[in-house]
Amino acid sequence: MPLETKISIKDFNFYYDSSQALRNINLDIRPKEIFTVFGPARSGKTTLLKSLNRLTDLIFGANHTGSIFLDGMDIFDSNVDLIKLRRRIGMVFDLPTPLPMSIFDNVAYGPKLSGKTKKCLNEIVEKSLKSAVLWEEVKDRLHTSALRLSGGQQQRLCIARVLALEPEVLLLDEPCSGLDPISTASIEETLVQLKKDYTIVLVPHNIQQASRVADRAGFFLNGDLIEEGPVYQIFTKPREKRTENYVTGRFG
Amino acid sequence: MIWTAALSTIAVMILILFQILREGLPVLHLSFFLESPKSMGREGGIFSTIIGTIALTGVAILFGAPLGVGTAVFLREYTRESKISRIIRFGTDCLAGVPSIIFGLFGFVFFVIKLNMGWSILSGGLTLTAMILPTVISTTEESIRGISPSYREVSYSLGATKWQTITRVVLPSALPGILTGILLSVGRSIGETAAVILTAGSSLVMPTSLFSPIRTMAVHFYILAREGISMEMAYGTGATLILLVLMINVIAQWLINRYIRRRA
Fold this sequence. Notes:
Largest sheet of chain A: 6 strands, mixed
Number of strands of chain A: 10
Helix content of chain B: over 70%
Strand order of the largest sheet of chain B: 1-2
Distance between the termini of chain B: 39 Å
Order of helices and strands of chain A: EEEHEEHEHHHHEHEHEEHH
Oligomer: heterodimer
């Protein structure tokens, strides 16, 4: 029986002006798994994530070939509703990026755009903050500026903000870079909780993080997908020499 | 060397303020503000010129702010560096360097005569709009440029359209800068004389509509002093002008600071 796929990437190439960032990527991501995309800097991880919700559209002079399917729908098709697509595929960036407004307004930003009512918003905000394990810390100061939270809290706020969209897929681009070990642990805990309901694509902060939380992994190097497979296999007996060298810390 | 430069700048400023306030403050009574000028301004107050100043500046900002902010948003958010954006920017830069009397001449020929609006608040206000546009555009552009690109990325990633991103993230973040630009423009409009005389006239009669001619405080000051009508009243008008500008600046700064504090 073939395994289900949530996202299917087929013969995907991506170019910034003249330089190629991704080369001939073929990859299937299954529903409700944490798939981790890892590799050294400039290997195309962020580009891959931003392609999945078409944030790459904002980059001038960017170009691609091949296709990406979400539940069988080609996301680059001209009649795809970009707004809906981005609500289905939420993204958390590598640095905490709260918008300069209150905690409440940050979480309510997405739902407000789709015209949710005031009463509805209160529920969504509470639920999202609870899922991101931030509610207890901020419930008494929802209307103070989000910029006053600590780094770890800000990043969990960004996760809550994405959850408020009720997406199907979460893209997390090094969500723990710049965070202390305690914040990192609480975000990892959150991720494992979230796996029950969401398909997660994670660029890990480091290899250890990938092995702690992920189900499957793909190793990227200079825009190529070197190999993919279950995490235990990738980290203990990789097929490729280059993967082994990276995992064992011989480069990168 | 640096100290001399800084100190002499401050000294000049204090000297001007001191001179005008010393001569002007004794004239300032409530009746000076609230009575209309009598016998060409030799007696009475300056009420109609205060109203004229506020109306004229109000019209200038009412048209200038949305036009200028709109142009800046267009330049920063809707176009990449291209021929069109360079032409617009070059045009506004040129406009910024044009002496105000030229704007006055343009306003006189175009608004007053061609569009037959006569010497009026509207003619004068629109002329001042043209004069302040470059300031509003460049300060708004500058403050939009300073907004972190990640805010935009976040907004789009949460399913916002371009318009929603501009109105909910870009403009609120740029607001303090925009207000500073508008404040500068208010100052220029209040202090303008040449362009105002040519387009809004110098009538001391209380205006009744946007098509009434008016005299602003700056023009009043100029005419009183220039024609030797009453130096005493001229200084009184000058002192009022200074206090008005001071008041506007203090209030605006207070509002801006409060806004920034609330968001941070």
